[in-house]
Amino acid sequence: MAGGGSYDTFPKLLLRNTAQFGTRPALRHKDLGIWQSWTWAEVAEIIRSYAAGLHRLGLRPGETIAVVGSNRPKLYWTMMAAQTLRAIPVPVYSDAVADELAFVLAHAEATLVAAQDQEQVDKVLSVSDRLPQLNKIVYDEPRGLDGYDHSRLIAIGDIIEDGRTALAAEPTLGEQIDESIRAGNGSDIAVILYTSGTTGAPKGVMLSARNCIDAAIDTTRFDRLTDKDVVLAYLPLAWAGDHYVSYVQGLVAGYCMACPESSDTIEQDRHEIGPTFYLAPPRIFEAMLTRLMVRMEDAAPIKRRLFSYFLDVAQRYGEQVLTGRPVPLSGRLIYALGRWLVYEPLKNVLGLSQVRVAYTGGEAIGPDLFAFYRSIGLNLKQLYGQTEAFLYVTCQPDGEIYPDTVGPPAPNVDIRIAETGEVQFRSPGMFLGYFKDQGKTADAMTSDGYVRTGDAGFFDEKTRHLKIIDRAKDVGRLADGTMFAPKYLENKLKFYPNIKEAITFGDSREFVCAMLNIDPVAVANWAERNNVAYGSYQELAGHPLVYDMVAKDVAAVNRSLAGETVLAGAQIRRFLILHKELDADDGELTRTQKVRRRFIAERYASLVTALYNGAHDADISTEVTFEDGRKGTIAARVKIRDMQIVGPAKSLGRAA
Amino acid sequence: MRAPNANEILLQVEGVALAFGGVRALRDVSFNVRKGEIRAIIGPNGAGKTSMLNVVNGFYHPNHGAITFKGRTRAKMQPFEAARGGIARTFQNVALFKGMSALDNIMTGRTLKVRRGLLWQALRYGPALAEEIEHRRKVEEIIDFLEIETIRKVPVGRLPYGLQKRVELGRALAMEPDLLLLDEPMAGMNVEEKEDMSRFIVDVNNHYGTTITLIEHDMAVVMDLSDRVAVLDHGVKIADGTPDEVKRSQAVIDAYLGVAH
Asked: What 8-state DSSP symbol labels residue A385?
């Protein structure tokens, strides 16, 4: 195992890894159908040339370089080369529309932009008149860029080549690079990560090299990560999760990061590369399970029976087997058979066979979903984190897993619960402040140096683990005082494969209502099997049979709520299925695909009114943004379905 | 990049006539294709467009006239000779091996480039293996170019039509042709698939510098893509020129709107 030690910047860590693991793979990338590999020594040579090239392009210490694109080696190298020159990389979400991109580039004062391909270059060029400080655009994939004006465009490959030639020709340049690495200091800003902005404009979270490295040293120890580990870099570059797992932890532990061939081939690539450490937001685990269930529906009857039988077995014994608690011999045997017949093949198909440690974070995970993966033997754990903490605030240690807590504080993290119920922390990876925003920085910190998370939570008395209820500002009460935790209900709804997204309403209201999005993959498959004809998503979403099917799921949620004394009064009385999919391009989801509750409540105000005034349908017309940026409107009449409330009589009486 | 010398003639069709018994499919058609351009042949149904392509790639033999390709004039040629000479084509109804994967289908496009004999290939050892790797590399570049990495191993029979068309284009590209004949590359596609295909056609032309001759029904697509357009009607060429010129031609308007002949 490797730590950071006296290596307080990333370029220094790179040199250490070159000396220590020189011939071990640092990076893999599937290209032309083959996994191409680079050792630490090769990467170090490329970074040196690239940094020399960027220096010749005029990149100076303290300047920023934006990185826009998916997980490709040259984009990670851009970050590393920039840090070598003591410049600051600013990764940006690649699916950001031009306006969002323009905001971040302007705010970050980027002098260079590293763009993945023609699409991203086009986007930057379309807003370049708003970016006076922008000097050059460098790009990875040349395809389609032949006819462009190359006075401002340069291929990354050419910069590396240029740097290599220059290094060979002028020895002083090499000395300059070495001097820059030596001069690098742990207190330098290593990276600025823009938060996706659930509220308001994105904020640039400044992280220092020392803090990033310290945090990563703690977590690599915590999960015993070594240079033998492998991760798949597939999450957005701009998300703290990817930056942490793929880039920082990779450099600290010296393990290999694998870049997928394209965003469409991630499943295949994961299957081939077999990552040993895996981080995914709940929705990815959800999507995997949905696809799995869909495929099982199409499987032969015998396989379906085998699957459901052993899933029951897993539910009974899986968790105990995984945590090493006592299990009766018969249970152990039947579980072993299940592992051989079902669980291992299943994990293999999902590309999770080699995973030693998996984390889910970013959002609360449905308990059933969480239990499913653990029961088939995946060491899935929860972490609670924030960009401001550079990811980890709490994480579950092996063997101490409770589905409803997010674990004890991560190593060296100090957590307290404010009187308001808000979780506050101090951590090694803590941010320095928001870039160019003293005011917001002050708002986010307490006077004694703790960071406010904005989440409501408490420490569970029995386990001493942190429990997060919801965003502090989202937890509400029904008119009769029953607690209403929207996200909790929504996660329960979303566990059903037919339901992709859910937004519940209830704060200060008489009862709870829900707006749902059907999952197009699962429902389309169901429609095909049941000969339900439809022409569009809208038609499918409004189909009476789809409503019937979803009503069954909602009823099941109500039944499970009836069993929980605190929340029994918060059962869903009425629901509707939205006529369109919620989309980040329309501002309904954040770029990390979280629903923007307030925005949706405003945008669909007429539907919310109808949910509460007893109407059985409502008209809605919304503006939508197409992928190419054009706008149009969708109009629809949306039906509303009433639900039965399930006993216990006591809470029913109270709710009614 | 598109060849700078756009005036070099790659293909010259001179007075070609073709008849099936009493049906005169082509009557004295002449046109040329310049190196590096995208050349469209359009016309109403039954105008003789596909016959024209079939004549160019040697599938039909014209009754009269001559075809000059890369400076060599000939009246008769077999399709395999055309292929060897650097003419590749796609078909109106996708003609792929349905049971084979997309990758294998595109690999078949390399057949004519294979230098080692059957025995070497059967052994799949030494030079034959090295050669296969080289071909595979070319094919992978095409797969990357056409963005079909996800379906590399999928039998083409299971793919949607639009993707099958793309695989077929990939197979034609694998031949590294000098002249690429596309027979209705966008037939039966939805708007999005058409846009994708148009982009690929332009990219092929830009990136590989391949000269392209295409037949298409969709006028909007043709006018956007092509450098020059030839219009056939009842086997006769009724117009030839830039898209703008063709659009203004009275003969073309009549042919498409239907005027008594």
From this structure: E
